[in-house]
Please model this.
Amino acid sequence: MELSNTWLWSRVTARVLTGSVGGYAGWWLGARMGYPVLTGLSAAAVALLSVTVLDTLKGYQLMDWLRTPDVDPPKLPGLWGEVAHRTHRVLRDREREILNERERLGQFLSAIEASPNGVMLLDATEHITWISTAAALHFGLHPVRDLAQRVTNLVRAPAFVQHLAHGDYAEPITFASQGGHTTLSVTIRAYGEGLKLVLSQDITERERSDTMRRDFVANVSHEIRTPLTVLSGFIETLVNLPLTDVERVRVLTLMTQQADRMQTLVSDLLMLAQIEGSPRPASDTWCRVSALMERIANDARGLSRDRHTLVFSVAPAERLVELAGVEGEWLSAMGNLVSNAVRYTPEGGSITVSWVTCPDGRGEFSVRDSGIGIDAEHLPRLTERFYRVDGSRSRDTGGTGLGLSIVKHVVQRHGGELRVSSEKGKGSTFTILVPSMRVRVRQG
Ligand code: ADP
Model:
């Protein structure tokens, strides 16, 4: 108030002075011509008008600057200069605030973008007002081009459209998206005046592992139930029927076979669980390849009982080669491949097991058989748990359907690779490639 009074008085004083000086000059001139009053008043009016015009021009200059206030304000004297200075300061402060807000918004949006979950904002008429990159990916939308589009014109999954229209968003919904390749869990929350927040989450992997877990439990139960049913049938027979000694021995032999089958299954399951639950094998614990080969050869001979030609080849130069990792796991992986070769090769066939160290330092353990072979269509699924090409042959020969799954896990844990090549009716070759860092030649 004080300030405005100062401005008011100085401007009034300036105009009074200008009018007075002009009036006096006019009166003085007019007195010589005989019209002192008329010329005095006219000169005072002209002086005041000139001051007002000059003042208005300064105002215009200020208005002109306000059209593009990003340059410095004009340097004006007096009130207009002060107005320009203050306006400039207010605008600069506002601009700084806007920049700060923009930066905060940018950080907030970056945080949303960093989340693997998707966020989409819809207006009251279900048009997209903002969409995060993850949400755009989930729904198959374009984060810029699809803005301001009605979401139901673009996302046509019936479950989503119905849920959005329903208005009861208490529970999330799950539906297949992107042509059934992904499974989305979508939660909608209403806010403001009819606005909606759509949160999406890709649960494809979770669903897949849930299904795998369910299948696994069902498979294990099935595998255990079969020998159990047979065993309880035999027990009932033993309890209720008077058997001869020969019959009793036969029944007990069959019971032993079933019990063995269950035992093998349980030990394979335990092996898998142990492999999955233990840390990555050490790379400084070494075991000799020739010792492994010897043990595998003994097991294979016992299993084959001279029905096959078995060749185990480790070149003399390779006798000092050692492998790093868990010896029991290597033994199990290699043993499983050799046992498969024996079991899936008819009598009279041949099996060759070899170890070579490649020029690049990698180790190559391979098992080649002249057995029944495998159709190409089965090859990609061979290492899945309980996957069998011929279920009855596998079971008849004591297979659990877990052997190759164990091999794959062991090889992967040791950073290696399992390769399979096979032709139906001609035989198969299974190869384990061991990374060079896990192969060495023992010194001395
Ligand atoms: P199983 O206990 O049934 O042998 P595996 O996981 O070891 O289980 O093998 C999976 C399936 O792969 C087997 O059921 C069999 O059909 C096929 N298979 C594995 N090795 C061979 C082989 N050397 N020759 C032919 N088929 C094989």
User: Anything to note?
Assistant: The chain has twelve helices and 13 strands. The pocket of adenosine-5'-diphosphate is lined by residues 336, 340-341, 344, 369, 371-374, 382, 387-390, 394, 399-405, 428 (CB under 6 Å). The radius of gyration is 45 Å.
